[in-house]
Amino acid sequence: MNSNIGPSSPAASRVHHFKLVLLGDTAVGKSCLVVRFVRDEFFEFQEPTIGAAFLTQTVQLDDAMVKFEIWDTAGQERYRSLAPMYYRGASAAIVVYDITNPDSFAGAKSWVKELQRRGDPNVVIALAGNKADLEGRRKVEFEEAAAYAAENGLLHLETSAKNSNNVKALFVEIAKKLPKNPPQPEREAFPIMPQQPEKQGCC
């Protein structure tokens, strides 16, 4: 999947920057997924995101280096009106649901519809069924989500931020789908909205 290309390799010097946004209902584990991907850490009680948080991480493919500029958006309904500010111009989106919560799957479908209607026409959308480690509490069947993803042209993986299963693979699969045009310059990020210490189990 990944390739160990040395720093002197021409491919290693081609860095492609892509804006990626995470969307989904509150407490599905969006922040946990990002923190696991970026820092390889997991916190049982992750503070809910206020507005949005910004992180970056790179993925090495066989032929290119992809740098993700990641916007992790808040899932609370009161922040929903801010979402277009973050997904506008995004090359990729990860729509997250919780496999133990069917309402979150319905919410994910709503986000997919909004992206298809108002997002970039070429946006790569991945549907991530998080909390796959809680198999005993599953309420959303893999086959149902996979069929929905296939009908809508989405990538689909089940992930676990807790045990890291499929987290890196999710971002690698997205990176493979993105067009590798000439390297783009670094873009200035939006101001990061402050985080407030409000505990809530999300993962």
Keywords:
203 residues; alpha/beta; Rossmann fold; 6-stranded mixed beta sheet; 6 helices; 6 strands; 23% strand; disordered C terminus
Describe the protein's architecture and organization.
- The chain is built from 6 helices and 6 strands.
- With 203 residues, it is of the alpha/beta class.
- It has a single domain (13-175), classed as P-loop containing nucleotide triphosphate hydrolases (Rossmann fold, 3-Layer(aba) Sandwich), CATH 3.40.50.300.
- A 6-stranded mixed beta sheet has the order 2-3-1-4-5-6, sandwiched between helices.
- A hairpin with a 4-residue loop joins strand 2 (52-60) and strand 3 (65-73).
- The two termini are 26 Å apart.
- One of its GO terms (molecular function) is GTPase activity.
- This is Ras-related protein Rab-5C.
- It comes from Fistulifera solaris.
